[in-house]
């Protein structure tokens, strides 16, 4: 990855936009951030990873209170102010309500935060690790409330994907089906209780409207998901004949690159990752760089499957329910997505590298 990045910087200066600062900004993603995955794998121990998980669960409780306040407040309210005091940090949702950003600059941060929280919530409910049950219950309630309050289809699909990954892990140890049954019953009970409150009813109505209108616009849920996962990859090559062999230059597809080169913040090349990278670096170098990310994703999948098969250790597998798509195709030009992508995959890689994988084994009797 380092070699491809350095080569991309050189071609950007010689054959592309020729701006050193734009090239450096584009290179930071894979030259500085990407190696952190491997550094995390070297320095983090089992207890470090679980401390991160506990902190995220604690933080999810005040976070859901904040996004609830943002959801029900106008964009002119102080809870929706952004950096510098500008109003309107929410993003259009449905029925006149906006998608809240939480403590982040954009709603994608809120979505990724609760997606990661879902991973640790599922893990702590099914593990032998001793965690305060009150905190775990409150974090679970916060997660369920965050889905309609966020008005985020991505969060909804992400939580479902985490549940699907957990269900898949049951085939390595059928005894854990009892755990899944108790978890499912608990989720139903909590959802029924939440549905008795007016704030949850309204948020659910807004979220349902968002799902329906977006599904109609994009041709159904299945078409929307397939297009998000595979469509943009195919489109990256559909117009490749218009891209120079060495591309337009590393960093040109970022908002900062756009501002430095044109004076405006926009997508000069493309918004989505495969399209952007291939347009910046050309088909040959761009594909090679993305394949490094795909290769690492494959290594993490095989490693986590091996751990589940040998000892029933599911944490790295659950982390990949959020981290894998981010690693393979998410827009790393956006700092929040990049940060979460490196952090989540770094945790997964650290789980595989820990000296005693049994530390992450599931307790099949915990639910009972």
Rounded mean pLDDT score: 84
Estimated share of beta-strand residues: under 5%
Rg from alpha-carbon coordinates: 21 Å
Distance between the termini: 47 Å
Using DSSP, what is the number of strands?
A: 2
Low-confidence stretches: 362-368
Describe the global form: globular
Compact overview of the structure:
This protein has 368 residues and is mainly alpha-helical. Helices cover 69% and strands 2% of the residues.
Q: Can you tell me about this structure?
A:
This protein has 368 residues and is mainly alpha-helical. Helix content is 69%, strand content 2%. The chain contains 14 helices and 2 strands, in the order H-H-H-H-E-E-H-H-H-H-H-H-H-H-H-H. It has helices at residues 2-14, 20-33, 36-43, 46-72, 107-126, 133-150, 153-169, 177-194, 198-218, 221-238, 255-262, 273-311, 315-329, 335-353, and strands spanning 91-94, 97-99. It has a two-stranded antiparallel sheet. A hairpin with a 2-residue loop joins strand 1 and strand 2. The longest helix is centred in the last third of the chain and has 39 residues, at 273-311. The radius of gyration is 21 Å and the shape is globular. The termini are far apart. The model is unreliable at 362-368 (pLDDT under 50).
């Amino acid at each position: 990855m380092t070699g491809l990045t350095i080569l991309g910087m050189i071609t950007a200066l010689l054959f592309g936009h020729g701006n050193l600062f734009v090239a450096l900004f584009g290179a930071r993603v894979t030259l500085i951030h990407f190696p952190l995955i491997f550094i995390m794998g070297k320095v983090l121990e089992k207890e470090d990873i679980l401390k991160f998980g506990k902190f995220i669960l604690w933080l999810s409780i005040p976070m859901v209170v904040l996004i609830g306040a943002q959801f029900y407040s106008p964009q002119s309210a102080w809870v929706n102010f952004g950096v510098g005091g500008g109003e309107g940090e929410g993003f259009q949702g449905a029925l006149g309500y906006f998608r809240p950003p939480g403590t982040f600059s954009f709603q994608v941060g809120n979505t990724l935060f609760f997606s990661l929280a879902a991973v640790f919530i599922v893990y702590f409910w099914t593990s032998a690790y001793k965690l305060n049950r009150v905190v775990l219950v409150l974090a679970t309630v916060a997660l369920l409330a965050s889905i309609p309050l966020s008005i985020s289809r991505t969060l909804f699909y992400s939580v479902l994907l985490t549940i699907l990954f957990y269900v898949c892990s049951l085939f390595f140890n059928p005894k854990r089906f009892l755990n899944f049954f108790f978890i499912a019953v608990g989720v139903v009970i909590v959802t029924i209780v939440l549905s008795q409150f007016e704030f949850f009813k309204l948020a659910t109505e807004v979220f349902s409207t968002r799902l329906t209108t977006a599904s109609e616009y994009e041709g159904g849920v299945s078409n929307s998901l397939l297009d998000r996962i595979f469509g943009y990859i195919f489109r990256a090559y559909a117009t490749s004949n218009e891209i120079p062999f060495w591309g337009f230059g590393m960093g040109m597809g970022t908002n900062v690159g756009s501002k430095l080169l044109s004076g405006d913040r926009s997508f000069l090349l493309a918004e989505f990752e495969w399209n952007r990278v291939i347009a910046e670096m050309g088909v040959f170098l761009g594909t090679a760089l993305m394949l490094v990310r795909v290769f690492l994703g494959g290594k993490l999948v095989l490693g986590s499957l091996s751990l589940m098969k040998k000892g029933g250790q599911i944490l790295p597998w659950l982390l990949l329910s959020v981290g894998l798509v981010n690693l393979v195709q998410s827009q790393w030009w956006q700092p929040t997505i990049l940060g979460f992508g490196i952090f989540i995959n770094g945790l997964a890689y650290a789980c595989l590298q820990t000296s005693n994988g049994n530390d992450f084994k599931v307790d099949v009797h915990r639910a009972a």
